[in-house]
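Reopening this one. Same input as before:
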Amino acid sequence: WKNFFAGDKTGSWLSELWTKYAYLASRSALVPSSNYFCADNVHHYTNKVETRAANFAFWTNVHMDKIEKQTLEPIVGGGVIPISMHTHRDFSATRVPKPEIDELRNTIKSKYIVVFCQGEVYQFFPYNRRTGALYHPKYLQKEFRKLIDYHNHKVMANRQNKYLKNYGLAVLTSSKRTDWANLRSKIIKTLPSGAKTIKTIENARFAISFDQNIAVSDKNEHKLAAFGDIGNIWYDKSITFVISRNARVGHNCEHTTGEATNFGVFAQLTQSEEGIDVNGDCMIRPETGYEKLK
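Same output, byte for byte:
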């Protein structure tokens, strides 16, 4: 590990040029041109969306904490050659649109995430804001359930037309980059509430999207992870977990922030560590080493 978060730029001279000109300078829309996705594993232990959300919120933050503290073990190819850990530098980041060349903003030190649901955006705190400790998955599950119930019973109940789709601000991130940069600039200058929302989203560690579709096939799951509900994925975020109504999870990844090797290994680790009991609720398995967490 080098101290990448302190401005150390040690690494391949080509990687910086590749990031800037192959990705950040591209003016094409991120979907379907650049972002990629990972599907869920083959097992299906629960239909509770709050369980999957809590598990992914917990284990992703565990993973990102290791990146921030530079204690994550390197990926080793063939048991011999370790992959440079600088590739994890922007595992948590936001690609901020600019008129000519986008900016990559690192968000690894952020201690909150954002949740998208039917055009609404919620700020969610997986850490205790007093002690800084990461909450247990069981506690996170209860909080996600509260958020979902609030959304369904309060927010949706107050919509004048419950059948009118509200695509939300996130739909703009699927535009061509210069168009999105110009729209973002106008929103920030003229709409204070919109500016606040954009700032909250862009500074979040990662995102979770509650999707209204049911994924019952590989095709459904791939569509869920790649696109989801229209306007429910902020494509500029390095990683968004898209969760279907029957609790299948897809990963949508912004390509500038890392190659699929990093995210693929991360997805395998997260899903292998995920604990679900016989009732479909969160649990921490003893072999993970976190069973004593309160």
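So the earlier flakiness isn't reproducible anymore. For the record, The radius of gyration is 19 Å.
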